[in-house]
Design a protein that fits this description.
Blueprint lengths: L8 H4 L14 H14 L12 H8 L8 H27 L1 H18 L3 H9 L5 H6 L1 H7 L10 H18 L1 H29 L15 H10 L8 H19 L3 H14 L14 H9 L1
């Protein structure tokens, strides 16, 4: 058979294997050709741009659900918003560490209470209560432990109260001054109210069994912080705020005269008496300016 006009493999210097099922160069040889052309900088052999990601996702979707560019963008935006919210919440919590560490302790102790039987729970809390009997035996211990438990087993309302009052006071005063206000209110209100109860027992106005009454919780410290926050609000709104908390804590004192009502009102007065701690803590908050900023 004549081979004239047909270049041989030796003369071309390139292997061009032809098979019955592929009329042209093999895949491996074509890949080598493209690589050499790419190294030589030939514009004709530059890599073609990849298909958009959403087309690849749509083709690869096993359920047949199309994943388009707009849906990916919407999902990414939602994830970014969630991330921003979480970052802001984390920054806010870090700005008031004492408040949220206290809340975390209350969460743990509240969960523990839910796993106790009613009889054991009552005896357990009574040993950590700031009643007259425990204050006479272990005053320091019960003053601390009584503020780590809440009666009733409902923790979520305290998240709102701590965020509205405690965290605001801590961010404004700083952790040490905020803690000083809370401790002063808790200790002084406890001692004064239990002293009033002891006087009632001695006069016969209260039964002797009241020396073992259950008295735990964080309400005295909370009321004291609410009192000191009066100085955080600018006048004339300050007097409206003060009037509201005096009514809230003063009316029960006039109607029931329970020793805990005495303690709450004393806590407000202790908070108001902490004015020296608020000096130099910045400009008072003006609700009118905040409303104007929100509208603008």
């Amino acid at each position: 058979m004549s081979t004239a006009g047909v270049p041989s493999a030796r003369s071309t210097g390139r292997t061009s294997a032809v098979t019955p099922c592929m009329a042209g160069p093999s895949r491996r040889s074509s890949q080598r050709s493209r690589k050499r052309a790419a190294r030589s900088g030939s514009p004709a052999t530059k890599a073609r741009p990849a298909a958009p990601l959403y087309l690849a996702c749509e083709a690869a979707s096993p359920t047949g659900t199309s994943i388009t560019g707009p849906s990916l963008c919407a999902t990414a935006k939602r994830l970014m918003r969630v991330d921003q919210v979480l970052n802001r919440a984390g920054s806010y919590i870090r700005s008031a560490p004492g408040t949220y560490v206290w809340l975390a302790i209350l969460f743990v102790t509240t969960v523990a209470l839910h796993h106790m039987s009613p009889d054991f729970e009552e005896d357990f809390l009574r040993q950590r209560s700031t009643n007259i009997h425990e204050l006479s035996d272990n005053p320091v211990r019960v003053l601390i432990t009584s503020a780590m438990w809440i009666d009733g087993g409902f923790w979520l309302p305290y998240v709102a109260l701590f965020t509205v009052f405690h965290s605001q006071a801590e961010r404004w005063l700083g952790t040490l001054r905020w803690l000083a206000v809370a401790v002063a209110a808790h200790v002084m209100a406890t001692l004064i109210s239990e002293g009033a109860l002891l006087g009632a027992i001695r006069r016969g106005a209260a039964p002797h069994s009241a020396v073992d009454t259950l008295d735990i919780g964080v309400s005295y410290a909370l009321a004291g912080v609410m009192g000191v926050l009066t100085y955080r609000v600018a006048a004339p709104w300050r007097y409206l705020y003060l009037g509201v908390i005096l009514v809230v804590y003063g009316l029960p004192l006039l109607t029931s005269r329970a020793f805990t009502d005495v303690g709450h009102f004393i806590s407000i007065l202790v908070g108001l008496g902490c004015y020296p701690l608020v000096r130099g803590r910045g400009k008072a908050w003006n609700p009118k300016e905040t409303l104007a900023a929100l509208r603008g």
